[in-house]
Write a structure and sequence with these properties.
Blueprint lengths: L23 E5 L2 E4 L4 E4 L2 H4 L8 H13 L11 H13 L6 E5 L2 H16 L3 E5 L8 H5 L4 H4 L9 E4 L4 H7 L5 E6 L2 E2 L5 E2 L2 H14 L2 E5 L23 E4 L10 E5 L1 H4 L15 H15 L1 H24 L3 E7 L2 E6 L4 H9 L2 E2 L1 E2 L4 E4 L7 H15 L1
Parallel strand pairs: 3-15, 5-6, 5-7, 7-10, 10-11
Antiparallel strand pairs: 1-2, 2-3, 4-12, 8-9, 11-12, 13-14, 14-17, 16-17
Length: 391
């Protein structure tokens, strides 16, 4: 592989990210390649975006086919085939109850739109979220995110948002009412909040309570959805079907795309002009996304993710037992967290020095979200590096 020459300077970029590591110029499989040719095993995957890895033939062929059409953008004033096909593919899998799709450009946009749809449908204003949540950094999604340090510089944010203790049934029953609550939003597996699978029984309880109170139940599957946990939707394990489901990260195969899956009863309350997007669901990105979704939704692909998730989970559980520095390993599929008895950032830095890229998820959790196409050999290699770092 021929690497491009690089003469760039990051100082022109607004300093909202503390970027680390080398300058990456290429990728292949589950590896990123730095400008000096060094390969890094990537258990970050663009923050759970690059589900099919780097230089994927699925994405490459879809991009070329989309370019051949000559249609990159036409706006949502007109119909195009790729977006309609993608919407049909997603609704087919959304609980078997029909529904419709709104396409946007990111997870935060998807959650903002879901809040608007819930308010329009319910004719109420309040939103309930939970501790450990992360739903985005726009004004409503940030208000529903349990990160006080993120919220504080931008307050006042959207009023009427409550963040309840995760799993507290009594608190939920007091807060979620027929008179006030428009929506309840929850991640079936929390990502930024420490990779915490929410117990199925709590999701079942929320479904029952939202049905009783006429409240919209929103599952934020921006990070945990689309195959990451070994099923197409992370909520499938609970058997619960939400009123809306928000998607993004892996949906566009690395291109910016988000989506709100909306049940028929809420979709019926939305009229032309209630919401809009210039770029959402354009023919170029929708062509790529359709092939990504079809690849991930294949039963054999998902079975392979589950099998590799069991392998990774077993290795991480062994680490948890063997190292006094590890408090707990938890996760599902290829979404795992190692909660440490110390800060996670130095461990992530030490892994990077050994050419393994991992994330943090809060101050004490190492987050591991490799491409869904990662090989078993690479999972073993990454687990071995982590063991060496923790030793």
């Amino acid at each position: 592989m021929t690497l491009p020459l690089t003469t760039t300077d990051a100082t022109a970029l607004l300093g909202v990210y503390a970027r680390v590591g080398p300058l990456f110029v290429a990728g292949e499989g589950s590896e990123l390649i730095a400008e000096d040719g060094t390969r890094y095993l990537d258990f970050v995957a663009g923050i759970a975006v690059n589900a099919l890895g780097y230089n994927s033939p699925v994405i490459r062929e879809a991009v070329l086919r989309a370019l051949d059409s000559g249609l990159i953008h036409v706006s949502n004033l007109y119909r195009t085939e790729p977006g309609e096909r993608l919407a049909a593919e997603l609704t087919k899998s959304f609980g078997g109850e029909g529904g419709q799709v709104f396409f946007c450009n990111s997870g935060a946009e998807a959650n903002e739109g879901a809040f608007k749809f819930a308010r329009k449908w319910s004719k109420r204003t309040e939103i309930v979220a939970f501790t450990g949540s992360f739903h985005g950094r726009l004004f409503a999604s940030l208000a529903a995110t349990d990160r006080p340090d993120y919220r504080r510089p931008f307050e006042p944010l959207l009023a009427g948002v409550q963040i309840l203790p995760l799993g507290d049934v009594e608190a939920a029953m007091r807060a979620i009412t027929a008179g006030r609550t428009a929506a309840v939003i929850i991640e079936p597996v929390q990502g930024e909040g420490g990779v915490r699978p929410v117990p199925d029984e709590f999701l079942v309880f929320l479904r029952q309570l939202c049905t009783e109170t006429g409240t919209a139940l929103i599952f934020d599957e921006v990070q945990c959805g689309l195959g990451r946990t070994g099923t197409l939707f992370a909520s499938e394990a609970s058997g619960v079907v939400p009123d809306m489901c928000t998607l993004a990260k892996p949906l566009g195969g690395g291109l910016p795309m988000g989506a709100i899956l909306v049940s028929d009863r809420i979709a019926g309350a939305i009229a032309p002009g209630d919401h809009a997007t210039t770029f959402g669901g354009g023919p170029f990105v929708a062509t790529v996304a359709l092939d990504v979704v079809r690849t991930i939704a294949d039963p054999d692909f998902l079975a392979d993710v589950r099998a590799k998730g069991e392998l990774l989970g077993a290795r991480l559980q062994s680490l948890s037992t063997a190292s006094r520095r590890v408090k707990e390993a938890r996760g599902r599929g290829l979404m795992w967290g190692l909660e440490l008895n110390e800060g996670a950032a130095p461990i992530a830095a030490a892994a990077r020095e050994r050419h393994l890229l991992v994330l943090t998820a809060g101050p004490t959790v190492i987050r591991i979200v490799p491409p869904l196409t990662v090989t078993r050999e690479d999972l073993e290699r990454g687990a071995t590096i982590l063991a060496e770092v923790l030793a």
